């Protein structure tokens, strides 16, 4: 470390109270920025959970106007054969998805998302489901339920008033059609809260109110060697339907949810507030620190320290408190996310979040430092002779 | 100082018709109204005069902190006002040692670290600078207090740190603003002896701004200022010299 950099560091840490309050302010701001950004990322990720959990296919074919995974704009059943006829398609199967009313064994009425997958291939089923559980869908009236919701949304009240998880063999009435829990599947935590029940496509159609259009998605597997982008273009040209990869569909859903709900604005406001609070705290403390030290800084200028070196000293001080404050704040944010993980909090720390957070905090420190530097630049070194 | 010895000395500082104005228009104030002076190498010059007479402005200009509005200046052959800002700062760091009336010690540094600041400014590694500074503090009777913080020391001890800081990089020009104001008579005498010893070395000069009449007898030259002018130059005959010159 250069002597004057060390001098700047010593000046900084000399006043412990001021130093700690400066770091504490930045810790708080960093914690707020990183934590809220990570919760936001976690929620944003969850918007595509159901899509990403679906297994076995390459493309989702859907009505062009579908904005997201929960937006049902069914296609005519002829869509399936039209897609199957396109060059490069290895196979294509229908998938039904809709919100239906379900009555639990103890009579409680809830809304569920019923997903009907191809009877023959069971393609599009939940990625995490065991082979046996998926095969159980071939049984009469069989449905699969999300294991995370067995004891929560799908819990069954017993005669003594206590609740128990819904179990294999329990009957659930879906839109007045009897269904039996035949198995469970693990699923990635989802942004949308209504339970997902998997059954076969034909059984889902039987449960759903009769509609002329009954295919929500056509799931497509490309032939080996076929480039997915080109296949998607061919499908679009031939049918007028949207054809998206799993990642594209998840991204479309995420974009729509973020745009249509207040989630982006709400989290954005909190993140910006954290940034502003950090800047104000850092600016106020750094500025008062510089004010208190201006006589010392003026003496240094009189003794021959160039303005640029004085500015560098302020930058060193800013960097020390900025990096330290951010490191502790980001660490605390990660720790809080880890501790709250069991409580189902959507929380995902990414390198992007960490880098942007660091950038934000350093920017806030730099803004604060600039105020101080401006003051120092204007310091009259001759003031050291004044009493 | 004898006439013969004076004639052998070369001039360290020369001012010719130096003026300094602050502000402009109706608010223009003349702090220096044409100062002419010559200060020899190896001399301790004391600058006296009432408050507001221009003493601070003059030492600020001589030490390269301020630039004169007009007039010619030479400090060991250099007019610092003609140097670009960065070079002028470096010139100060290399050429001038300061003793401020308010000490201006950095409160978070130890005595030795404070005294080492001019060396640190010039890039001397921290441990080396502190060791050299501690040696200077020892010469001022502060060997035991090298590791003390300024707040743990008396005003006199803080002044000695300030003096050690002014001398640590062996500057050619020492500018002292009321260096004995916080000291008792005995300590003041010791400080003046140290400053005098610094002045007496070849190629050096010491300028002391003071109101302390007790120390004037140590001066080789006394410059009296009033209303932005040197009104008597020199007045060394007015005060009996203390060094048997």
Helix/strand layout:
The complex is a heterodimer of chains A (387) and B (245).
Chain A lengths: L2 H12 L1 H31 L2 H5 L5 E4 L15 H7 L4 E15 L5 E9 L13 H5 L6 E5 L9 E2 L5 E2 L6 E4 L2 E9 L10 E5 H7 L9 E6 L5 H12 L2 E4 H15 L2 H30 L1 H9 L4 H33 L11 H27 L10
Chain B lengths: L2 H6 L2 E12 L6 E12 L2 E6 L6 H8 L7 E6 L9 H11 E4 L11 H5 L1 H5 L4 H14 L15 H13 L5 E5 L7 H16 L4 E5 L11 E6 L2 E4 L13
Parallel strand pairs in B: 3-7, 3-8, 5-6, 6-7
Antiparallel strand pairs in B: 1-2, 1-4, 8-9
Could you please describe the fold and organization of this structure?
The complex is a heterodimer of chains A (387) and B (245). Chain A is 50% helix and 17% strand. By secondary structure, chain A is of the alpha+beta class. In chain A, the strands form two sheets. Chain A has a six-stranded mixed beta barrel with strand order 2-3-9-4-8-7. In chain A, strands 5-6 form a two-stranded antiparallel ribbon. In chain A, a hairpin with a 5-residue loop joins strand 2 (89-103) and strand 3. Chain B has a domain at 3-103 and 172-236: P-loop containing nucleotide triphosphate hydrolases (Rossmann fold). Helices cover 32% and strands 24% of the residues of chain B. Chain B has eight helices and nine strands. The longest helix of chain B has 16 residues, at 185-200. Chain B is globular. Residues 1-7 and 240-245 of chain B have low confidence and may be disordered. Chain A binds chain B through residues 2-4, 6-7, 10-11, 13-15, 295-296, 298-308, 381-382, 384-387, and chain B through 56-57, 59-60, 63, 65-66, 85-86, 89-94, 96, 98, 100-102, 104-109, 113, 117-126, 129, 177.
